[in-house]
Amino acid sequence: MPLPRLNGNLTPRGAPRYDQLFAERLVSIVLAVGFDETGANRPVDDELESGLLARGLQLDPGAALARLALGKRPTPQRPGNHYLARGLARDGGGGPVDVVVTLVRAGDGSAGGEAASAFLEGTNRCDVAVYGGHGRYGTGPDFDYNFTADLLDEHGKVASSFSDYRDLEDLMRERGKPSGRTALAEYRLLLKQGRLVIRRVNSGNLVVNLRNYHTSEFGSYLMVDQLKADSGVRRMSKQRFDKKYRLWMFNGCRTHDYFYNLRKLNPQANAGGLDLLGTRRLIYWNAIPDTMLALVDGLCARDDYRQLLARLAESNPVDDSDGETGPSHVAELSPRP
Amino acid sequence: MPKQLDETTFLARLAAFTRKPTITEALALARLGDERALSPLVAAMTNSMEGQDVSRYREAVRNLAELPLLQRWLGGDLEARRVAAHALSAHDATHAPLIAAALVDPDAQVRAIARRSLRAWTASPALHQLFRGALTNPDPRVRLLAAEGLGKIGDREDIVHLNQALETETDDSARDRLAWAIEKLDEDDSA
């Protein structure tokens, strides 16, 4: 039986509920950049910051927090980079709307748990929450390394150590080849023999989903297995959300994998209306800053959803590397009152 | 110079790959052995996020970035060093001295990339030496990784080095890892 899922819509009708997003002539946005084991997130961090500055947003936590309070929005409970631009957007009557952006970055992953907490807080506190980074095979946003895996030799001594599932996959494939085993079969055999010892590092993970939608890929098993085995991992379904309308975008690979659980297992988040944007195929690190900023631009321009998807697709040209062609992003919208 | 292609064709293919990378072309370019392909290959590798191609881009980079090329690029200008650092792997014992040098490179980005290469490794005498040397690296994150590495592959002699490092270590996380490594090697020794 196929796993339940929501694929999202390429041609959604309607627009974000701007009257609610722009209440009190203010919109609050959290932009979060996830973690990559090879450091591919670091240029994204810089480009996103320059993009905000180029749009007239200024890093001014004091003024940003004061504007949030004046706009009857919750203020952040964690220190962070808060930017403010006055009158960057317009409301339905043409009046100026101020924009407050909180920028969260995983950086080198050493404070991934903190970054995850700041983003999580932003998903509740802000009108718009945007994540850019690894989709982690449909499991959820991630702000740090996932594990350290030690391969033991026949005497129990450490022969190799891994912190990146791609390195581990390479070795498993290489080791399994002479015996005709796949990387996954080799991984499972070594685990069973106690020769692969995995220490989980999941403080930076925000788990949305633990169904494995990518059963042909080694990394998906590793990711899902390790998160499932960790009873302390943070799950989105356990989070509390105030009742209000929100828009979330998850800009990682194939993040439409998140839609079903976000819609079905998070009643509080959905209670006031939750519009979701995600991707339907693989994306690339170098397109992430432009994509996140394109959403900000589109919202400031009061785009409808089709226009927003067109903007997002512009930054993510058609790519057939995973057999999927066509536009990059899809929408999964809450029912309209 | 390309081994099989004329200059114009090679440059055209390289430009096309830079605009729209594909895994087939990445492997083909790597096979040509022309080092001018290294930068676009590394860019394609680091840009890939998920899916079947990720490992294959890594394979293409490894195929092209042979040791003499890496040595030359890591001794070159800033851009070359930043590109070449991405091809370093502590799974390859011959890379150990290059990683050691990159860990003290004047450029923070090169150092960061080299530091990440130390998060995954295969035990070898060369790496053992690298971990020992890295106990005195100016970056506490490197010292932490060195302590962790020695705790896993070190021997009785390393206990002295680890204790010396512990006496002067000022970073809490690194100190914690040093203490863990000393305990572990003590236990191994008494087992």
Helical residue percent of chain B? Answer: over 70%
Oligomeric grouping of the chains: heterodimer
Beta content of chain B comes to under 5%
Q: What Rg of chain A do the Cα atoms give?
A: 21 Å
Query: Based on DSSP secondary structure assignment, what is the total number of beta strands of chain A?
Result: 13
Shape of chain A: globular
* Helix content bin of chain A: 25-40%
Helix and strand sequence of chain A: HEHEHEEHEEEHHEEHEEHHEHHE
Give the chain pair forming the largest contact, with residue counts.
A-B, 42 and 32 residues
The CATH superfamily label of the domain at 123-191 in chain B reads: Leucine-rich Repeat Variant
Please specify the SSE layout and strand pairing.
The complex is a heterodimer of chains A (337) and B (191).
Chain A: H1 18-21, E1 26-33, H2 41-54, E2 58-59, H3 61-70, E3 81-90, E4 96-105, H4 112-125, E5 128-132, E6 147-152, E7 158-162, H5 165-176, H6 183-192, E8 196-200, E9 206-207, H7 218-228, E10 234-235, E11 246-251, H8 259-264, H9 267-270, E12 274-279, H10 288-300, H11 305-314, E13 329-332
Parallel strand pairs in A: 1-4, 1-5, 5-11, 9-10, 11-12
Antiparallel strand pairs in A: 2-3, 3-4, 6-7, 6-8, 12-13
Chain B: H1 7-19, H2 23-32, H3 38-47, H4 53-64, H5 67-74, H6 78-85, H7 96-102, H8 108-117, E1 121-122, H9 125-134, H10 140-153, H11 156-168, H12 172-190
